[in-house]
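Our consortium's second objective concerns turning raw sequence data into structural hypotheses that experimental partners can test. To show how far this objective has progressed, the report includes one record in full. It was chosen at random from the queue rather than selected for favorable results. The single chain below, 176 residues long, was entered without modification.
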Amino acid sequence: IITPSPSANQDRLNSSVQQQTTLEFSSFLDPANVSVQTLETVCAVNEHLLGYRYSDAFVKALEAKDVRIVLHLCANINPSLFFSNNPIPISQSIILSLIQQLTYAIKEERTQKIALSWIRFALCSLNTKDKSVVNHVKFVFEPLAKRIQECFTQISSAEILQELESIQSLLNTTTI
């Protein structure tokens, strides 16, 4: 088995971002119903993303405390390619913050697929023993587990149920 070099993975990720990123708004943002500040933040996130400054893009999106901006960013990056990089292009604290914010998007039908996919990949990449997150993991995992449990009774899609089960399994096997 031939494993691509880290630079090959990075090149594939950058190429994927270049193909997916649009300076237009994703379906998570309606330009008619957002503030000027939100529009400015989305433009800054897009600029970081187009410059392959992933950490800066995620920090900017997460600092806005608007899950729609985070979803917009996630919609423009393939999580499989993103998290296959070694090292991962964002810190452990950013990964944990990403999980925390995406937790609030898993109950809405139009956002749950992308949110669950990103949460699953992020959980697989999170080092819960990292000193920057160890004291905060419990406070992110507990609401996530609760929200996952609530979703089981409301979801009929087999694909979404499989994602929920996968995340629940990851949460149950992760040492806090």
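The partners drew two points from this record. The mean pLDDT is 88. The chain is about 65% helix and 0% strand. Both points have been shared with the crystallography group to help prioritize constructs.
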